[in-house]
Amino acid sequence: MKILRKSRGPKATLTVVNGRRMHARVSEGRATGGPPVVLVHGLVVSGRYMVPLLNELARSHAVYAPDLPGFGRSEGPAGAPDMAGLADALAAWMRVAGLGGAVLVGNSMGCQVIAELVLRHPDLVEKVVLQGPTMDPRARSAPRQVWRLLVDTTREPPSLVAIEALDLIRAGVRRSWRTFRRALDDPIEERLPGVRVPALVVHGSRDGISPRRWAEEVARLLPDGRLVVLPGTPHAANYSAPAEFARAVRAFLANG
């Protein structure tokens, strides 16, 4: 693992995995114990989108926020991998980084990647947190998802739009669209019963993308799932309500 720079906040690292560089942000110096926490971002964005939550969780854990292949500063293949391909790449990075028995915390499409990773690489995972999971089967079409995104965007902090725009430019419209189609085609509801680790589903009450009925269904489908609701919080709880999200995660890790 190569450290690119050190400054206040997380450090940036590059790790070569299967011949490609994967970029990650890593917390520094404040962890007091417990399993490592890996934050898994959603569609278009990168690990930068997870930094507010990383900073909160770094008070108690070593926290890692990788950029999935083809997003942020991580190199990706020519095509767009499906959720299984992204999960395998993330698992390979975790093995190189020495992160076994980890807690995986995902937002949006990151929850789909986590579900695949648990099924394919169960030895790497101790617990999972799924926040704002996609794709709701009742809205598994591009027009419906785009409409939900537009609704949710009006509820998010304005500064988030700049982060999403920059990450979209880096990833490219073609890759982002193809990955979106891959996510639409992924029936996460069929995989959740196989996620046999303690799981927390986190729902923001103002989430315009992942409605409460779907969050409740996700929690029911998980063999050891439970649901917590963050009042007044939109889809990107990791960015808009990181302190509240971190408290829910810590309570789950302490009592789950």
Automatic annotation (TrEMBL):
Superkingdom of the source? Answer: Bacteria
Q: Could you tell me which InterPro entries the record lists for this protein? A: AB_hydrolase_1, AB_hydrolase_fold, Carboxylesterase_BioH
One Pfam entry for this protein is: Abhydrolase_6
| GO terms of molecular function | catalytic activity
Domain (AB hydrolase-1) spans 37-248
Q: Which Gene3D superfamilies match?
A: alpha/beta hydrolase (3.40.50.1820)
Q: Hey, what's the signal peptide range on this chain?
A: none
| Name recorded for this polypeptide | AB hydrolase-1 domain-containing protein
Q: Which organism is it from?
A: uncultured Rubrobacteraceae bacterium
